[in-house]
């Protein structure tokens, strides 16, 4: 690490942070936590099956195989910083005991990590199974209202993949036609804002492509209350729902967070959203994950549309090297006021690992821009604070 990057990194670590995208859980799900439960709910489990913590040789082999992976690199660093114990086959029982004791001795352990170690002043939190819930800690968590259930509501008794029903948000007996249904979506979103939600969230990229085109309500109506609807009819219905959500976002001055890139990985690249963005000029589109791995799509949208914002959440955890390059190119193509970052994690230790990854990627990116003569130290620090705090505060009206 160069002296320039080190100076930027040290400055970054003095900053308070607003995490713009997270999936933190209710308090009671952090009781009796141990190392096994923690790792099963961290991103490392996406890369590899968790070994038996009693098998030292297996753990060492597991770590040697995956330590190059960004999830592993930063979670291992976070665990050592938080508990003072490196994760090895020999030390695994000690680390397990340290995690158990920390959570047994404090009911607020998970919140303490977020507030103190992560330095989070605010977290924009998405609870899939309870849209709009602030976890009972409104001082720390501001909800992003999850709208995926509306895409599943073409049948009244059909929940979205996490088990939530759209009709539970509607006024009883008010939905008889598709226009009624779309009107109730608008009411539900307005009520979500009144209850404290500061954004809308759509993660439908795990279920379908992101090319929203249909605005013909007659086409969309063919799927409504139709258990035999075709895939094309369901897509037309979903398109109409998405335009309704985007319009409601504008009407209620709520940024619309959209999961882009990784998901079903079929037509989930950000350029699929171009028609939606073009037809929704008053909506603030907060595109998550940079469209990883289709970064060029997000660059084009950032340049073409001033109502597009990019959240760098998850990118440093997926590939720290790619994240640094993404930050440089996004700044060169757009400006310093439309990039944000969120931890995008469930476990607080993973949130801390994600922050460590972002701090490294951001300091690396800004140091490279300084080396290239693009910026000077004072402006590098300005950009860092904008990305980690100021941009989110302005975008979400915090």
Strand runs, count = 8
Spatial strand sequence of the major β-sheet: 1-2-3-4-5-6-7-8
The number of helical runs is 17
Helical fraction equals: 40-55%
Q: What general outline do the C-alpha atoms trace?
A: globular
The fraction of residues in strands falls at 5-15%
- Mean pLDDT level: 96
- Spans of at least 5 consecutive residues with low confidence: none
Task: Specify Rg, calculated over alpha carbons.
Answer: 22 Å
Summarize the helix and strand pattern as letters: HEHHHHHHEEHHEHHEHEHEHHEHH
Sheet with the most strands, sense and barrel status: 8 strands, parallel
Structural class: alpha/beta
Distance between the termini: 35 Å
What does the secondary structure layout of this molecule look like, with pairings?
Blueprint: H1 3-12, E1 17-22, H2 35-40, H3 44-47, H4 56-66, H5 70-83, H6 92-105, H7 109-117, E2 120-125, E3 141-146, H8 149-152, H9 178-194, E4 199-202, H10 217-221, H11 231-251, E5 256-259, H12 274-278, E6 285-288, H13 295-304, E7 308-311, H14 315-318, H15 320-333, E8 339-340, H16 348-371, H17 377-395
Parallel strand pairs: 1-2, 2-3, 3-4, 4-5, 5-6, 6-7, 7-8
Helix pairs in contact: 1-16, 1-17, 5-16, 7-16, 9-11, 13-15, 15-16, 16-17
């Amino acid at each position: 690490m160069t002296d320039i990057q080190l100076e930027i990194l040290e400055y970054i670590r003095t900053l308070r942070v607003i995490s713009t995208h997270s999936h933190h859980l209710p308090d009671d799900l952090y009781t009796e936590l141990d190392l096994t439960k923690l790792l099963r709910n961290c991103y490392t489990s996406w890369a590899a099956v968790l070994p038996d913590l009693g098998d030292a040789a297996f753990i060492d082999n597991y770590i040697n195989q995956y330590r190059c992976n960004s999830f592993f690199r930063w979670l291992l660093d976070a665990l050592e910083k938080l508990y003072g114990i490196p994760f090895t086959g020999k030390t695994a029982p000690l680390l397990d005991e340290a995690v158990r004791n920390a959570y047994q001795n404090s009911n607020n352990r998970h919140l303490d990590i977020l507030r103190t170690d992560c330095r989070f002043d605010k977290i924009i939190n998405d609870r899939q199974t309870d849209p709009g819930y602030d976890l009972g800690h409104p001082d720390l968590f501001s909800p992003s209202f999850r709208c995926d259930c509306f895409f599943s509501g073409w049948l009244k008794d059909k929940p979205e993949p996490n088990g939530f029903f759209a009709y539970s948000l509607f006024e009883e007996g008010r939905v008889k036609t598709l226009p009624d249904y779309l009107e109730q979506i608008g009411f539900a979103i307005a009520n979500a804002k009144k209850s404290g939600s500061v954004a809308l969230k759509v993660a439908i990229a795990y279920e379908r492509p992101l090319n929203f085109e249909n605005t013909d309500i007659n086409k969309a109506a063919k799927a409504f209350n139709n258990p035999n609807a075709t895939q094309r009819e369901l897509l037309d219905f979903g398109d109409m729902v998405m335009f309704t959500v985007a319009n409601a976002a504008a009407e209620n001055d709520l940024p619309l967070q959209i999961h882009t890139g990784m998901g079903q990985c079929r037509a989930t690249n950000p350029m699929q959203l171009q028609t939606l963005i073009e037809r929704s000029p008053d909506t603030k589109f907060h595109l998550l994950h940079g469209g990883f791995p289709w970064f060029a799509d997000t660059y084009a949208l950032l340049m073409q549309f001033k109502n597009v914002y990019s959240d760098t959440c998850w990118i440093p955890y997926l590939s720290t090297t790619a994240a640094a390059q993404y930050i440089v190119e996004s700044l060169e193509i757009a400006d310093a006021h439309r990039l944000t970052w969120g931890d995008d994690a469930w476990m607080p230790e993973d949130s801390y690992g994600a922050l460590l990854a972002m701090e490294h990627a951001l300091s690396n990116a800004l140091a490279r821009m300084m080396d290239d003569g693009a910026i000077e130290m004072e402006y590098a620090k300005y950009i860092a604070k904008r990305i980690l705090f100021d941009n989110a505060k302005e975008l979400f009206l915090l």
